[in-house]
Design a protein that fits this description.
Number of domains: 1
Oligomer: single chain
Structural class: alpha+beta
Shape: globular
CATH architecture: 2-Layer Sandwich
CATH class: Alpha Beta
Distance between the termini: 20 Å
Order of helices and strands: EEHHEEEEEEHH
Helix content: 25-40%
Length: about 170
């Protein structure tokens, strides 16, 4: 990650939320595409050394993204993002959760509502993600699972992808 780009990871235990504010050295439309197109998500949406593979994606209100993060040994960790609202190139909201390879939610693991907003200033995009959990226990669970470290690595991969895409 370029050290002069903004990255905030703010935990609010009173509201059971995490706010992630991240600046990218790219135009908003390109960053939006990286968040909303499976062929691009598969290139960055997992912390190193994991890879992402999409099983299905239907990016529309009421649609979903069903994906796995795959470790170097081939173990798969499945997730599903159910899209609630979409305002192209500005914002989307979704429910994110852990599931199995058929998309069935794992009730033992936390589910969160994501509110992702994209803004632009000159040649940089800003993404603010508000992740809201039902309980403090759910919030603390994902923090213990390494969400901050995993997200830091994942967003660094997006930086790398954006550099590649802008050179094409």
């Amino acid at each position: 990650m370029t050290t002069d780009l903004q990255f905030d990871f703010l935990v609010d235990k009173q509201k059971n939320t995490i706010t992630i504010r991240r600046e990218f050295a790219a135009k908003r439309e390109l960053v939006w595409d990286c968040y909303t197109k499976s062929e691009l998500l598969d290139r960055w949406f997992a912390p190193k050394p994991l890879k992402t593979k999409t099983k299905s994606m239907d990016f529309r209100e009421g649609g979903h993204w069903h994906y796995a993060m795959v470790d170097p040994d081939g173990n798969e960790y499945w997730g599903i993002m159910d899209y609630i609202t979409i305002q192209p190139i500005e914002n989307y909201t979704a429910l994110d959760g852990f599931c199995d390879d058929s998309g069935r939610l794992n009730p033992e693991l936390p589910r969160a509502r994501w509110d992702v907003t994209f803004t632009e200033a000159e040649d940089h995009a800003f993404v603010e993600t508000l992740v809201a959990y039902n309980t403090l226990e759910d919030l603390e669970s994902v923090i213990k699972m390494g969400m901050e470290e995993g997200l830091t690595s994942t967003l660094e991969r997006l930086d790398e992808l954006l550099l590649t895409l802008q050179k094409q």
